[in-house]
Amino acid sequence: MKRSERARFLSPLIRESTQDAQDRGESLTLIRPREIILSWRKKEQSELIDEERKHADLANQLSMLDQPVGPLKPCPYEFHFRWKTQSGTQHRHVCDDWETSTAFFRRRQTLGEMGALSSLKETYEQQYLERGMAFALGTHKRRPKQWLLVGVVRLDSHDTNQSEMF
Fold first, then answer.
1. H or E stretch including 140?
2. Tens digit of each residue's pLDDT (9 = 90 or more) over 92-141
3. Residue 126 neighbours by CB distance under 10 Å
């Protein structure tokens, strides 16, 4: 999808808050944060081993039509976003999307571990926030009031405005 089409396609999902989405009976929404702080913690070796096992189990669940794939390599860091909505409500979510892990691994190849972490922090806290982004948040049937961060979407601010959304 072209970047110019992305905003128009996604704008019906943009809400001011998860409460707004919940009041509408929605289980998936996009929220544009006003502020972001990315942090991380290094995972314990036992966590990485457990994740490797789970990834291997998933990779082995292929159908006869699927091409064999290797298991995903778990990221050695768990990423967290502390963020505020446009109205100032504060949130904290674990960022477990594969794009962030992939970005870390790619940047680590050229920047080293700390350089990669610093680069991700700058990307999310400054570049994405300035250019425009949204957090994709969703609920699960078993926990309909718990909103999980399912992705980070680059969505240029100038491509949408409030009058187009509602």
1. strand 133-140
2. 999 988 899 999 999 999 999 999 999 999 999 999 999 999 999 999 88
3. 11
CA angle (111, 117, 122) in 5-degree steps: 100
Cα separation, 138 vs 148, in Å, equals 5
**Model pTM score:** 0.82
Interacting residues of 108 by C-beta distance below 8 A, sequence separation 6+ = 115, 116
User: How far, rounded to the nearest angstrom, does the alpha carbon of residue 55 sit from its chain's CA centroid?
Assistant: 19
Residue 22 C-beta-side C-alpha neighbours within 13 Å: 13
Cβ proximity of 134 and 10 under 8 Å:
yes
CA separation, residue 45 to residues 53, 94, 95, 113 (Å): 12, 19, 19, 17
Q: Which CATH number fits domain 3-42+78-165: 2.40.160.60, 3.40.1350.10, 3.30.70.660, 2.40.50.140?
A: 2.40.50.140
| Residue whose tokens read 């009041």 | 23
Tokens representing residue 139 in the block: 């609920």
